[in-house]
Amino acid sequence: MKLNIAVLPGDGIGPEVTKQAKKVLEAVAHQFNHTFIFKEALVGAVAIDKTGEPFPQETMDLCLKTDAVLFGAIGDPKYDNDPSAKVRPEQGLLKMRKDLGLFTNIRPVKAFEQLLDKSPLKKEIIKGADLTIYRELTGGIYFGEKKISKDGKTASDLGEYSAYEIERIAHAAFKAAQVRRKKLTLVDKANVLESSRLWRKVVTEIAKEYKDVELHYLFVDNAAMQMILNPTQFDVILTDNLFGDIISDEASVIGGSIGLLASASIGEKHAVFEPIHGSYPQATGKGIANPIASILSAAMLLEHFGLNEEAAVIHKAVDKSLELKISTPDILPDSKITTSKVGDFIADYIHYPEDTNMNYHNIHIGQSTII
Ligand SMILES: NC(=O)c1ccc[n+]([C@@H]2O[C@H](COP(=O)([O-])OP(=O)(O)OC[C@H]3O[C@@H](n4cnc5c(N)ncnc54)[C@H](O)[C@@H]3O)[C@@H](O)[C@H]2O)c1
Ligand SMILES: CC(C)[C@H](C(=O)O)[C@@H](O)C(=O)O
Ligand SMILES: [Mg+2]
User: What is the ipTM of this complex?
Assistant: First the structure.
């Protein structure tokens, strides 16, 4: 298969982790005889520095003409610490999601067997956890009217949803539940918010079309607690933009690190694959960022095009890296293994899965571990 892939590395650790995902996709292309053509473009703070815009037209044009986008991360402390900044890197990410119509954000979370001891949560609680969050991505409070009074002392953000916006992601979430464990939990705040009551009404109605799926409702405050008390109860979670953002970072604790959590942002015509984490500015250039979230986002890209065997090969290589402790310090605190070494290992394992010497890029595994 031939795929044109736009790569938007962005800021902070974005370029380092995206480089590993690209390396892994190149290994897959080589092994399976595919042609993946990569073209890079600017987004975020680097784009503001070079063009004045966080999502320049040139980047949009590239995204429009490619098959898929591999996104790194955006964000820079110089904007985070300046509430009056008029242009911000995050606007670039939001514009991309809105203008490409990426209304469904899929965030799979699971407790890796190899990492059960690494989570701050008890092993018995997270063992077997395997859930996926369907987060609405182009509506709600993120995109409603924003106001600030003339004296700068009152501000508001409108949290608005239409039935149509709810319906289209609800169908995607029910379909996902049908091929998983047939349970869907709608997470909302319907005891307080009118928009959440609309979510309940619309989703309850749609549930009649998916009789094989059990529908549950949970208020978001309780959901946040249940996520860490009893995560195995969840299969598919459906929620709005803001709640989905918050509970997905929380859910990453189950996996052991946010550096493992991938996502796919899907619309009718376009698809972007992005780790859920941000630009982790403190880690920029240090080689300590975990590239697996980006690498697994690349696997989701392949699945999107039906390349399931290829995606499975990536998962197998990632599993092997975790098993052999070829990991960055978020998982192994004293590890000296760098971002790019993890990428090298995973790419090499795809090239030579049967290498009995286990001698990948000077990472020797066995009695004498030399790195
Ligand atoms: N999708 C995105 O591009 C995205 C997502 C979230 C935040 N942001 C932006 O990123 C900047 C920093 O935000 P933040 O500090 O709140 O969130 P962050 O996700 O960048 O980092 C939070 C913490 O998560 C951990 N972490 C994140 N990525 C990791 C990785 N690959 N490997 C290991 N550990 C990792 C680190 O402990 C870090 O301190 C902000 O400007 C924010 O707006 C962007
Ligand atoms: C950076 C920010 C705009 C973004 C969001 O809130 O959607 C991020 O936190 C994410 O989860 O992708
Ligand atoms: Mg977030």
Answer: 0.99
